[in-house]
Structure formats: structure tokens, C-alpha cells
Amino acid sequence: MLDLGRTFLQSVERSPNALALVDGDLQLTYVQWHRIILNVADGLRELGLVRGDRLLVVLQNRWEMATLHWACQFAGIVIVPLNWRAKPEELDYCVTDAGVKAIVYEPVCADAVVQSPAARNVSRIGLDDAQGRTTTFDALLVERERSGPTTQTTKATADDCSLILYTSGTTGKAKGVPRRHRHERAGALAHVAQNLYRHGERTLGVMPLYHTMGVRSLLSMAMVDGLFVCVRRWNSRLALESISKHKLTCLYLVPTLYHDLLADAEFAKVDTSSVTKLGFAGAPMNDGLLKRLSAAFKPELFVNHYGSSEVYTFSIDQNATKKPGSAGRAGINTRLRVVKLDAKSPDDFAQVSEEGQIIADLLGDEAFEGYWNRPDADAKSLRDGWYFTGDTGYFDEDGDLYVSGRVDDMIISGGENISPVDIESVLSLHPSVDEVAVAGVKDERWGQRVVAFIKRREYVDAETLDTWCRTSDLVNFKRPRDYVFVDDIPKSPVGKILRRKLSAGEYQRDETTPIAQHTETTKE
């Protein structure tokens, strides 16, 4: 299999003058970008980084971030992208855990770098006059003499490590997920195939390049000689302008960002007709948002992608609106099972429609091989050649997968296992509900009480929503026992609902209108 450096060379050779990268006023063709990438790769080597060394990159989605990703692939250096919002202790942990040799950062995250003891012991490459730097990014861009053709400048093989992604770490320390060039290339090829990307597609580069969705967008555009338009920080107005100006053809976002696009007052005025393919991942999309997006964009393809950093694709549904909530079936490179919630073996299958834990075959081409320096995490998640995802779900009678949440998010009320996703889907269809999240709150009698947290589009009270649930097909024991109206639903940087914050009371109530609350003390 080709390594990722040679993969990029394919596009340089096929379409040298095609537009490859846009960041504000900067526009680069493939041949122009390739030259810059080689300069940066050489600059990293001059700093002393060699094949297999780790480079920590703490940047927003700017052209330098995308360039560094590709430069590392050419140089055989392992890129370790980190959330630019990382706190000093998080950055310090990753510097030490990954054993990085250098850090690239910008002013917005300079304080975290400066306050990290571990960072003081490595080279610090600063952008835009970032404090604490030992050299500048501009120093990497200097043109250098090269002997031989540029095709000889790739130093990696398909078996080399491409990057280490740090998972968000909902509990405890984040876990490093090392992925080889062949894992990443297989994931990008599958992304192209499963989203039916054509030659010359154009996408919005807004999903963070420290997240698997952002990396996949970057790699897949190179696979099809396409265009990657950088969006440094999410802004729905800028995103709409980018779609219109650059005639973007495909979007791959988390549901939250789609919600923001539709909510922008300028949406109806902007020409988005060039977008023919929608894809989403990172979190389930509720029925209400699915219907609104389908009506607004009228896409020829609407893909629900379910995956993770560890195994990029679990399942794919290329017609997301046909069976709302369905995650479809196993992806091109994947085998899936649902086993019982307390299963110790991958052969302890759950029955059809029985909720269990979703697991994936580690022999899949996109699957990682184990966590970085975390034998404890390996022992918990890797069993007999299968990856136990920690996600709950079930197969329906047609063989389609439904993802119901996380094992840790499961609400256990009165001995019943209750998934938040089913309840959220029902409530999302009410016209007055803008966003909804359901979580379990401690209850002396029931163990946990089902509570719906609602961000309103327009005024609605708890009694009205309770009637809505009673007249739906939602079984009675899943019906919320409380409704709390909030200003915003807490989410991670990539749009995942943080139910643990809701359960812990970490939210701001919506006090703009009188709040009616519905409470039950008996379980029907």
C-alpha cells in the first residue's frame, strides 16, 4: 500500500494546477502546496526531528496546520494534533506521554505552552509572534536545495505511524490512539467510497484537525484532487460565505454545526445549491434536524457515518432520512457485532432488537492496534481480536444498526435500562424544541430519574411536551419525569452532548419565561 506522502504525490502528478487549499486570501494549487510542504518537512528535519519522532501541533484549522500534517507524512514524523483550547496540564500530559521532540503553536494557546514544564525541554515553533518560542514557523518555510526528483523526498512507509490522536477522555486521562499510514489511507479511501466523492470535490475544512473527522476530510480531498477550505474557528456566517464563494460540493460536520447553519439568519439568502452531499458523524442526529436539512439542501446523498478515532468507520447509512436514527450497516473495511451489555466474550451475541454493546473486528483495515502506553485501556477495550467500543445499540430485524448511546450514559431507572437517544428523537420533532438532551439524575427511589433538558425555539411548557411524549410511540417507562429548560446544551468541542454535566447540574436555566415543570413521584 502507498504511504500518505506518495498518496499526496498522486494528486500533484494528476492535477498539479488544481486548487488544493484555501485559507482566507491564500490560495494554493497542488504543485504550489507540495513545494511548501517539502520545505516544512526539510525544516523539521533540520531541527533534529527524524523518522518516527513525534511533533505536537496545537493550532486551529489554518493552512499551517494542514501543511504540517502533510509535511509529517512526507518526513516520516508522527504528528500529534491537540485541541488548541487545551489547558496547561492537558498539554503537559500529552508532551510527556507522547515523548514529543517539538511543539508548534500559536498565540491563542501560548499560555498553555508556556505554563507546561515539559514543553520547556523541547523545541517550540511559534506562529504570529507567539510568546515562549525558540524558533518561528517562517524558518521552516525557507526554500532549500534538493538533490534528485521530489518523488524521492518521502521518508515513510505504509507501516510507519502517521499520527497519534488523543481521545477526549470523558473520564480520567486522555488516551493516545496511534494510527499507521495504512490505517489512515484505508480510512480515507473508505470515506471517499462511502460518501461517493467524485474527482474535484470541494469541502469545508472546519472539523478540527485534531479530530478524526477533520483529518478524514483533509486526506479524502487529496484522494480526489479536491479542495480543502480552512475555517479556523467555527462561524456559521463564514461557513455559508465559503460555501457560496468556493462552490463547495460536500459537507461533513457534526449535527451541532448543521443546526447552526440552518439557524443563521442569512441561510435563506445564501446560494448553497452547489452542495450535493451531506455527511454527519460524531453524534446522532435527531429526526427533526434530519428533516429540516433534507428540505433545506435537497441533497442527492445524505450519509450517517458512525465511527471513532480507534476504528474510523463502524457503519454507514447512505440514506439517513429513510430510517431516521439508523446507523446503517458495517462499512467497507469493518465487521460489527452487538454483544450483551455484560459480555466478556465477542461471541456472547445480543438478540435482534436487544440493546447491547457494539464491538468491531480489529482485523479491519481501518482499525488501530492498541492505545499508546496504556495497557490498562487495552485490557478493558481489546478482547479476543475485537474492539469493545463502549457504545450501546442494537440490530433491527432488517440488519440495520441503531446506536443508542454510551454504556456510561445508560439510564437505569427502577431496574430498567433506558437509552437517552430514543427519547431525544421524539422530543426533537416538537416544533417548539430547538435542541434536546436526556440524562439520568440521581433519585433516591428509582436510582436515576429520566430528565429532558430542552433548549426552546419558542415558548413551550413541560405539560405540553409530556403530552407530546404520551401520544408518541415512546414506551411509558422511558417518558421523562422532569423537563428542565436551559439556555444551551453543554457539548464537547466537536459537538458531542456532555450528559455528565447535565446530570451534575452544570447548566444555565432558561429564565426568560416562566418555567413549568412536570414531576412524577410514581412509576407507571
From TrEMBL:
The AMP-dependent synthetase/ligase domain, residue ranges: 10-372
Occurrences of domain AMP-binding enzyme C-terminal (ranges): 423-496
Alphabetically ordered keywords of this record: Ligase
Keyword Protein biosynthesis recorded: no
Keyword Thylakoid (UniProt): no
GO terms for biological process, alphabetical: fatty acid metabolic process
The organism's place on the tree of life at top rank: Bacteria
PANTHER family, sorted: ACYL-COA SYNTHETASE, MEDIUM-CHAIN ACYL-COA LIGASE ACSF2, MITOCHONDRIAL
Similarity remark: Belongs to the ATP-dependent AMP-binding enzyme family.
Name of the featured protein: Feruloyl-CoA synthetase
Protein source organism: Caballeronia choica
Lineage: Bacteria, Pseudomonadati, Pseudomonadota, Betaproteobacteria, Burkholderiales
